[in-house]
Amino acid sequence: MRVFLKSRLVLWIAAAALLAALPPVVTALGQPYYIDLVRRIMILAIAATSLNLILGYGGLVSFGHAAYIGVGAYAVGILAFYGVTNGWLQWAVAIGASALVALAIGAVSIRTSGIYFIMITLAFTQMLYYLGISLAEFGGDDGMRLKAKSQLGILDLADPLQFYYLALALMLLAVFLVYRIVNSRFGMVLRASKSNEARSRAIGFSPYPYRLAAFVIAGAMCGLAGALYGNHTNYITPSFMAWHQSGELMFMVILGGMATTAGPVLGTFALLILEEILKGWTEHWQVVLGPLLIISVIFFKRGLAGIFYKPDA
Amino acid sequence: MDKSFRLLLAGTAAVTLAFAPAAMAQQKIKIGFITTLSGPAGVIGKHMKDSVDLAVEHLGGKMGGVPIEVIYGDDQFKPDVGVQVAEEMLKKHQVDIMSGIIWSNVMMAVVPVVTGAGKVMVGTNAGASPLAGKDCNEAYFSASWNNDQSPEAMGKYLQEQNIKDLYVLAPNYQAGKDMVAGLKRYYKGNIVEEIYTKPGQQDYQAEITQLRSKNPKAVFAFYPGGMGIQFVKQYVQAGLREQIPLYSVFTVDETTLPALKESAIGQYEARFWSPDMNVPASKKYVADFEKKFGYTPSYYGAQSYDGIMLIDSAVRANKGTLKDRKAVIAAMRKADYNSIRGPFKFNNNHHPIQDFYLLQAVKGGKDGAHMEIKRKVFEKHQDSYHQECKMKW
Amino acid sequence: MTVLLFEQFLNGLQFGVMLFLMAAGLTLVFGIMNLVNLAHGSLYMVGAYLAVAATAWTGNYLLGVLLGLLGTLVVGMLVEVIALRTLYERDHLDQVLATFGLILFFNELVAIVWGRTALYTSLPQWLQGFIPLFGGARYPVYRMVVLGVGLVVALLLWYVVTRTRLGMLIRAGASNRAMVGALGVNIRLLYTVVFGFGAALAGLAGLMAGPIYAVQPGMGDLILIQVFVVIVIGGIGSIRGALVGAIIVGLVDTMGRAFLKPLLGHVISPTAAEAAGPALASMLIYLLMAVVLAVRPSGLFSARG
Lengths: 313, 393, 305
What we know:
The structure holds three protein chains of three kinds. Chain B is an alpha/beta fold. Chain B is built from 14 helices and 14 strands.
């Protein structure tokens, strides 16, 4: 077990070093585009990691997780619109607003289960999507340009490299946080209520507050990803909250491996790079991607992470 | 010479060759063209891509004696994907100039990326008002129009016709509201009701029933793409075609006519261009397009063809290069090429000052119905935002 | 006003019936196989495309409809055998993802075969025209036919499920799969048949939608989410729930679009109603669903616990 943990840590350090080394390498090769591409992937990996907390460990199949990307991005955009460019404040509001929205959605949704839960989370996100479209002040469906990137003092997000390393650091932090949460007492209750709700009730835990807390934490974390994503694209639109986006997030998690530490990150990288390759190949790339996804669901039950190590005990 | 030294030399040469895309780029004019190629809206992208291919063919594959390379990108109808595709073209493919883009939201997201990288953007459809007004940019040119201009033309026509009671329908999103605002800038008659429907809505029976109960003299609608097909079909099926004339913008065009056929007959549209335009460049474009691709081109395609020709004029003026941005902009401002809309001038905001026409769908043609120019509504029409643009030249 | 109200009521009913045809197949498949099928909308699209193609090929509308129905049935069974059969024992998440992959596949496949331009559809002469209602109002014949066909199908379904051997097997399969299997029924075949049957219902909805909507790639995605709202409100797995849910959603959506803005105008200022009305009307069915689930977490007529 010990060796196992160690080897995993080594893998993580190697992956982090690889990602840290990427910018100088691609710059030397005259291909700085890949810095943007990988930055986008890492930001979405934060969102996928947050989804994994509730979907993978908590068994809460949220089909509306893109909502918090939207809420986080809009929080930054709206504050910037009114001249508040302090990044710390913006991001705090993004996280807080996402947590509040998640609390409201979770409070109603978690009372349901199974397919009802999938559909009610989808319904709430659809409502937010239509709300975004009807916000004429902030561009409606056209969306809004981010007036200025978040001002973080020492860090300058306009510099692609600094933004890249910040995204990398935050992604690693998110992964670590989820890892710690899952392995805490709180996380054990959460996981226990996934595998057997009746038993966890019997030993005196009502799963509802634990699930709700996890739902809110996941929402808040995804809100941060949204704040980053708004800064990344410099543009904020309701399409961040479209249901296809929620579907893609779920794919990232399942492709990489549910309820594994590295799964969401692996899945995000795999899916987005695959899309990138297929798009260069044919405009009908979806006709290839669709069956690939079906095959991955049918045959890679444990996802990509399953190739590297066994699922968490 | 020492053997290992020669090996080293050869190796260095190979590496230099492998990593010298920037040096190679000198010998080509690289154009990055973004549109929507996948999904339902991909039909518009096809019209645009085919037109760009035709333009390159008409130019003999060269601009100012230099070979052209067009790199196409699919924005999937999403602004964030559009930004990523633009970054890829600018940084990975190192294009000299960017063009295309159907949607206002994608355009507004992409333009700062392009201009920030020191390149010029030639828009060939989206006509977002901020880009014509307060957010205008010296490195952004429109080869199309501003969104409001077409509904303004329709508004003017309806005003001239002295239509008393007008019923207005549009999807409940920004472009829908812009269209109605444009209409109202020139139409001063009574508006019975303004209805905003859910974006992407399929069934309009409830709205059509409401509309009929109000008994208006005319109906104005803005329903692009599939929404338009649905609305027009259902309007005709409700038996209203003969009763209440339907005026629209961006609703019936050559991308939707094949699906509508005779149910489009009688529909009025306002537009700056139509395949039956009596302009030599346009006639050549339409004839060769139909011959090569076997379908009727639309304004989406015509604008894209025109955008490439505009770029060509800048390359010719600068003797086969686009490296000097200032010189490129100066050359483009002259609009010195045979445009499919006939001779025109750019306004201070780099949007064309152009004529607008009233069109009607009439019987005939391969699709059972085709658009015909009925009359000119606006002569040298300027968009309503150019005064907000601080650019002067 | 009463005439208008009645007409809008008919519109709502007709929309509801359309939703029901979709919802019935979806809820049947869920109730019996415990399968969440996001690709149900794709089958709707396939039905519309096949009917248009078959009508053009045979030159006969009714023949086209028949071939379209049969075609969708076959496509549905093929999808079940090739892709979905292995997913019955998986959790809903895997099913959602795999069928999401099917959506991408079908949308793109249709675009490759027929192009991305919407297809032309028309009605035969005998389905055009109007039926006069009282008070000078009138209603399109075709919409009336859609309404009629939907109601007939609802009746037939009720008959099949409650009065026939197949229906008995379906009900038994829904409540205890293992037992039905143990009694010597070929459960695999039963599933394939039921799935094909559900697909044909979706295809029927699609081919009836063809002449009024745009037949284009992705047309099923738009209606799919509304259909999920219907079956969730009605209670998943229950055909009765699907019918009630569909009629409720059809009526609420239609009435909301028609009357919400003027009604709001009485409560809040007309300008505020102008802005809030359309936005609220588009959210209405989702709000309704949230309220129903908040009160009854497994829908109005739940078949499963």
